């Protein structure tokens, strides 16, 4: 990938394999997995931080990513 992203969401192990067959991610990119199987597949390709959804639902994973970055941005602003 030519761009650096704060986070990338993965919804299946096959999506992980497909993505990493052609891409690399910056070490500070947070990777989000829809479940434990997808998270395990991410670990085969990356040592990045992985956030795993508590339940396998697309909406919950998206909300988790939003909450993660809202918390991160709030913390970063307060530390300046």
Q: Topology, please?
A:
Layout: E1 7-10, H1 13-22, E2 30-33, H2 36-43, E3 50-52, H3 58-79
Parallel strand pairs: 1-2, 2-3
Helix pairs in contact: 1-2
Structure report:
The protein is of the alpha/beta class and 80 residues long. It has one domain (7-68): Rossmann fold (3-Layer(aba) Sandwich). It contains three helices and three strands; from the N terminus they run E-H-E-H-E-H. The chain has a three-stranded parallel sheet, sandwiched between helices. Strand 1, helix 1 (13-22) and strand 2 (30-33) form a beta-alpha-beta unit. Helix 1 runs parallel beside helix 2. It is globular and about 30 Å long. The N and C termini lie far apart (30 Å). The model is unreliable at 76-80 (pLDDT under 50).
Return the average pLDDT rounded to an integer.
Answer: 90
CATH architecture: 3-Layer(aba) Sandwich
Q: Report strand order across the widest sheet.
A: 1-2-3
Return the structural class. alpha/beta
In short:
This protein has helices spanning 13-22, 36-43, 58-79, and strands at residues 7-10, 30-33, 50-52.
Please describe the structure with a list of short key phrases separated by commas or semicolons.
80 residues, alpha/beta, Rossmann fold, three-stranded parallel β-sheet, 14% strand
């Amino acid at each position: 990938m030519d761009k650096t992203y704060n986070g990338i969401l993965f919804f299946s192990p096959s999506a992980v394999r497909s993505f990493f067959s052609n891409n690399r991610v910056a070490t500070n990119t947070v990777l989000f997995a829809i479940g434990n199987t997808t998270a395990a597949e991410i670990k085969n390709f990356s040592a990045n931080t992985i956030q795993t959804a508590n339940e396998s639902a697309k909406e919950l994973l998206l909300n988790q990513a939003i909450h993660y970055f809202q918390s991160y941005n709030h913390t970063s602003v307060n530390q300046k």
